[in-house]
């Protein structure tokens, strides 16, 4: 089992699935607004409008539901990015479309992204595992683009982490902290850097 996933046992009934989803939504709100260490299970169950004992039918403890939320975020982001880069005809176009889609996603799911960032202080393996999934996928895509002659040869692993860093910090600055006048201009500026670097042209 991944360090990100926690206990991913799914309920066997529709009612059970609905209750688990309600607990996840409540946890997203409570953790996102208060942070992991301030949030409590009682606040989560109150937000979900379920009994305290019901929580333990679906999650072992506070960390377990937290891990489940990070895994949920991972799944949502991957699905969102796949959908929005599917039309790309090159790796560079995929970079631009993917960055735009990612920033849009974070803008609409601020609590979930705060939870991912908070995971570093909860258990570094959760945080690292989340980003490692993206780094591995990125590396393979970059290797393929190099093999097809789209990109110049280089260390795909280092490049993957650089690109993740760009997305991550742009998400923090322009989706969580500040609302830019134009997100498209943020994407264009970042894409120009990715495409051309810092060398004068």
TrEMBL record:
Signal peptide: none annotated. InterPro entries: DNA-bd_HTH_TetR-type_CS, Homeodomain-like_sf, HTH-type_Tx_Regulator, HTH_TetR, Tet_transcr_reg_TetR-rel_C_sf. This is HTH-type transcriptional regulator BetI. The keyword DNA-binding applies. Keywords: DNA-binding, Repressor, Transcription, Transcription regulation. It comes from the Bacteria. Residues 17-77 form the HTH tetR-type domain. Residues 40-59 bind DNA. The keyword Repressor applies. SUPFAM superfamilies: Homeodomain-like, Tetracyclin repressor-like, C-terminal domain.
């Amino acid at each position: 089992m991944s360090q990100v996933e926690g206990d991913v046992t799914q309920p066997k009934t529709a009612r059970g699935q609905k209750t688990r989803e309600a607990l996840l939504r409540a946890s997203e709100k409570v953790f996102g607004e208060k942070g992991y260490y301030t949030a409590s299970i009682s606040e989560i169950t109150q937000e979900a409008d379920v009994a305290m004992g019901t929580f333990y039918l679906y999650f072992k403890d506070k960390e377990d539901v937290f891990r489940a939320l990070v895994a949920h975020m991972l799944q949502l982001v991957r699905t969102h990015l796949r959908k929005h880069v599917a039309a790309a005809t090159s790796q560079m176009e995929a970079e631009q479309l993917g960055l735009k889609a990612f920033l849009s996603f974070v803008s609409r799911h601020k609590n979930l992204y705060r939870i991912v960032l908070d995971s570093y202080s909860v258990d570094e393996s959760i945080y690292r595992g989340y980003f490692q999934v993206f780094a591995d996928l990125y590396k393979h895509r970059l290797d393929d683009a190099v093999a097809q002659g789209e990109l110049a040869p280089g260390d795909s692993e280092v490049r993957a982490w650089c690109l993740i860093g760009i997305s991550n910090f742009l998400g923090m600055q322009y989706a969580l902290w500040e609302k830019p006048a134009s997100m498209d201009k943020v994407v264009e500026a970042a894409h120009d850097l990715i495409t051309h670097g810092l060398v004068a042209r």
